[in-house]
Design goal:
Blueprint lengths: L5 E9 L12 H4 L2 H18 L7 E9 L10 H8 L13 E7 L9 E9 L4
Parallel strand pairs: 2-3
Antiparallel strand pairs: 1-4, 2-4
Helix pairs in contact: 2-3
Length: 126
C-alpha cells in the first residue's frame, strides 16, 4: 500500500427490516440471503459515501452467512452473489475487493442471515 494511504474500517453491518409486518425474529422479516445482502451492501455504500469513498475503494470484506433453513441449513452463497453482483464485478466498478466468506451458527439479531464488515483505502493526497 502506498505511503500515506488511510484505511477506513466499517464494522459488521446487518440488514434492515424488509417486511415490517412479518413476525419479529423471523427470517421473513429481514428477507432471504439475497435481500439481506443487498440491504447490507447498500448500507455499507452509504457509510462509505459519508466518508467520501465508494465501493470501488473497498479492499477487503468479511462476510458471515448463517445457514438458510430453505437451503437445508447450508449458506446461500448464490443468493449472496446475486446481491454482490450489483456492487462488484462490472467493468465500471473497478477491481474486486478480497473477500472471506464463512458460514456461522448465528448472528446477533434473530432472523439475520448476513453480516458484512469492510476495509476501504483512501489514497494519499498528492
Amino acid at each position: 500500500m502506498p505511503a500515506g494511504t488511510e484505511l477506513v474500517f466499517l464494522s459488521g453491518t446487518l440488514a434492515d427490516v424488509a417486511k415490517p409486518d412479518a413476525p419479529a425474529g423471523s427470517i421473513e422479516r429481514l428477507g432471504n440471503t439475497e435481500t439481506q445482502a443487498a440491504s447490507v451492501l447498500g448500507k455499507l455504500a452509504q457509510e462509505l459515501a459519508a466518508s467520501e469513498l465508494t465501493m470501488a475503494d473497498v479492499v477487503k470484506m468479511n462476510v458471515f452467512l448463517v445457514g438458510d433453513p430453505t437451503q437445508g441449513g447450508a449458506m446461500d452463497f448464490a443468493g449472496l452473489m446475486k446481491a454482490w453482483g450489483r456492487y462488484f464485478g462490472a467493468p465500471s466498478q473497478g477491481k474486486l475487493p478480497t473477500r472471506t466468506t464463512v458460514q456461522v451458527v448465528a448472528l446477533p439479531i434473530p432472523g439475520a442471515l448476513v453480516e458484512i464488515e469492510a476495509i476501504a483505502a483512501r489514497k494519499a493526497a498528492r
